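FORM 7B - TANDEM STRUCTURE REPORT

SECTION 1: FIRST PROTEIN
SEQUENCE AND TOKENS:
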Amino acid sequence: MVDRREPESQAASSVDSLREPSAAEVRAALERILASQCFTRAGRASELLRFLVGQTLAGVGPRLKGYTIGVQVFGRPADFDPQADPLVRVEAGRLRRRLLEYYSGEGSADPVRIELPRGSYSVVCRYARSGDAPNASAAAPRRRERLGWHTAAALLGVAFIAALGVIVWQQRALVEAGRALEVLGEPQATEWPRIVVVPFENLSDQPRLDHLAASMTEEIMVVLSQLDLFVVATQTSWYGPEAGEGAVAMSAAGGYVLTGSVRGGGEQARITVRLIEAESGTQLWTSAYDEPLAIEGLPALQERVAREVAAVAAPYGPIFEAELARARRVEHSPELRDCLVEYYDYRRRIDAATHRDAFLCFKSLSERKPQIARVWAGLAMLHLDEFGFRTGREPGQTLAAARADTAKALALDPDDFQANLALSRLQFFDRDPKFRQSIERTVTLRPDSTEALSQGGLLLVMSGDSAAGLPFIERARVLSKGQVVTYHFAHALTYLREGFVDEALAEALRVDAPNWIAAQVIVAAAAGLSGREDVARGAVRHIVESYPEFEQTAREDLRRWRFDTEYEGRILVGLRAAGLKIAD
């Protein structure tokens, strides 16, 4: 389009676009944010944002440190160590996500934006568009146009058949969700694609359920934001796929849409949640919860439903399966989401083929996008598996590669949970007792990650500390609906160490990982100790066929896996009882 404005007008607009908002405009923007639905029940985020804005306006923002924030905002003691306690970094990350949610929904038309860049505690305040700056002649018409669009969208109305719970969705709302994300303009560097969360609706005539609907939305947003999802809230009503423009809008809106409703009568309420693949409109998952409306039980109910939804969104729920199918169809160079879904597919299969696919994907991505911490963290984790599973290069070379990639990931993002998990595994293999602190830090960074919990718990169990490790693994099992390979393996090890060989064998046989040599070793050892010759023969045959040299290298392998000495002795006795000729 040709710009027909006078040169003086163009110059004035250019100057306006470079102007920064005044302190009064920033404070007004802050109050709008704090009064929004995104922040009214987010006490820590609100306190942190108010403090950071105040310090930035006072001119000390660039000099803010984690220690100052921890003590002055979160009430930490004078000996607070922000390196050991990641509270400030975690809360800053949550604040960034909440700001993104706000500007994708309620704040999409705000003229002034407050942002918290990564790696800094100093906020950045800017005009959303050059036309929002004072004296820009086109500002008022554009604002009126935006307001008119939102008004038109709101007037389209909501239709549903409440008796059957079937919602007639609106194409217009999809367009709004897509445009909200386009306005957001945030590059995606998250584990899974965007998930648009539509506020839950009260489909009954009971006003008291309005609060339940709003609080359910908030609780689910909080839980989902603890995953690596790019979570976006909208102020739209129910919606779904339609032909034409709607399909485009759904694709723009992100990968998935989460909707929900609340309805009820008397003392009972039904909460319904649906997960929809945006591009195709396919309903991937739905669940209904019939619950009593007792006030004292509502917080626990909301948390339980939110955890159910989080399990659906995390590996290995419906989103994972949909992403894996999509990744197998793509023809372009792999992106982060493609490599991560390959990685998690490997983690549930634990075989050489899927390990190779995940490694090659990350390797290719590291050459094109070396600035992403998660890429190097993924490579480090795969190097560590190569070391532990006795495949590929000489062990020293494999550990050296893992160290180098872990260092790169931590340098790019010290709060990346997978980089910290790789660090804990490195320290474990090096017999460095600091691995325990690294596990605690990893779980603090990602308290609902089944990977952080299960792998951290397994390291503790292998070191001989089942009392500390098994609770982590049990929590991972609950969050993942039981799909944790390490769960039965960790219990088998614990029983073996305590001398309950029949129980150890029963748990080992439940490990669904036929290509994982460590699992087959535990089956053979437990079967040998319990006198189950039939099971022992089958396990020994599998080990020898897969690893013909195992009898010669068994001691070296057990040392490499860093089993506690109590485990190592019992495993060797059991393997010999199973019929393996272990070299001395």
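SECTION 2: SECOND PROTEIN
SEQUENCE AND TOKENS:
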Amino acid sequence: MVKTGLIGGFLIVFSSLIGTITKAQDFTKEDTLRGSLNENRIWWDVLYYDIEVNPDFDSKTITGKTIIAFSALGGQTMQIDLQKPMTVDQIEYNGTKLKFKQSGNITLVFFPHKIKSTNEAPSKITITYHGQPREAVRPPWDGGWIWTKDQKGRPWMSVACQELGASVWYPCKDHQSDEPQLGASITILTNKDQVAVGNGRLVKKTIEGEKMSYRWEVTNSINNYNIVPYIGAYENFNEIYAGEKGNLDCNYWVLDYNLGKAKKQFKQAIEMLSCFEDWMGPYPFYEDGYKLVEAPHLGMEHQSGVAYGNEFTNGYRGTDLSGTGWGMKWDFILVHESGHEWFGNSITTNDIADMWVHEGFTNYSETLFTQCKSGKEAANAYLQGCRKNIRNDRPVIGEYGVNHPGSGDMYYKGASLIHTIRTMMQDDDRFKKMIRGLSADFYHQTVTTGQIENYIIAQSGLGTSLQSVFDQYLRTTQIPVVSWRLQNGELTSVLVNAVVDLKMKIYVPITPNAGEWIMFTNQKPITIKTTLNEAEIASAWNRNIYVNYRNTPTK
């Protein structure tokens, strides 16, 4: 129910609900099986994936084998995820074939007895499988396996499967909360005239009959959807970045005819790494190196093998998403997808509903890079310009337990929330320490929104009232409004369109060159003397705070 009323000459809007009401989404049994930790998932913990894949370009099919090393707390029925129409052929445990039942997108595996193991003596199952995986329609957004050709008509293959899930092409425990903490390997079989690139480091290259075999390995924990093959006519060049943790190997794999363009465009990589290490702490995967790989789609944050498809141009495919011009000073995909190495890959949310932690902070890394490159005013302008992309269609946080991300506003609204907090702190040194602290304290961990909120509340110095700010921007679609009026040299302002307990610091202009940061409480007017006229006040509000300002003169 919505009511209207008058307080102190202002039109105030009250709502009995938090946020805009949207039609509830219907979730299926498949959504729950994928998105929840049920009794067939909770008893075992993935330690390592050893994946082998052999794609056939002409038939658009793959055959594969996945070995899953795991520790077990005691269970007898295991849920393995592999999306139809992929088919499981055989599952073995300690040399014994296991019974299994494939139903929809899951396979239930039946052990002859309860399995208990430890990290010192992990258990292993080997799954062989085959099929025609879902083909990507519009990667990376509508993902799957990508079968395409390069400009010379040669096969070019890869995978993009965030949200859709890694189980679209290999059997795994397809839930963000359970990363293989000991890493993963991917062995890719190709024709001899092709090159295969994977995550981490190339540890073995051999000839196997008419095929080439490339084995890549990561030693750090990794998200399931980040493990991908790239197959094409690749050439490689590299350099060393002298970073905070020593020398970082930087490798770049691009199609042979793009080598010259890449050597010019990828000079931004070292500049990006230097900026991000300063603001967000050391690159999180020194052991596995940093890598950009040209991909047959726009881009993805594949850990230690970042997918790049921005056509070696600045901006986002040659455009500036902020509309300010500052976004044309750097390569959007190189910067954004690499920013995910800190937020999304090193720090990963347990549930995809909290994906704003990945995208909000990574989107904000664009603002940080703009500041490194062009100064703070440019960064402020870039951030504010990007707000036009916010839709406020539904809350940023999605539904838990059903593999449901929140609104796409997790990008720009998430970044504006972070910039709002930074602006209210009025202490960039403390803000930088807080962001670097997040990277250090949650290094290689899976987290919840609550953990991130509590950390920022504790480290920002803004107090527990900051929880109401998180609630406002993450859990509702309402954007607070500062409704103000000027009368006889007094500026009266009130915060409206807000959650009941919202408290936030807002800059109130007083003179041409000064103002005061005042803690506003929802629907409680504040009056302060000012020497400014209405036009000067309208232009002097701090736009880095994500609120709307509305002049409501007395009638």
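SECTION 3: OBSERVATIONS ON SECOND PROTEIN
The CA atoms of residues 153 and 233 lie 11 Å apart.
The first helix runs from residue 29 to 35.

SECTION 4: SIGNATURE
Preparer initials: ____
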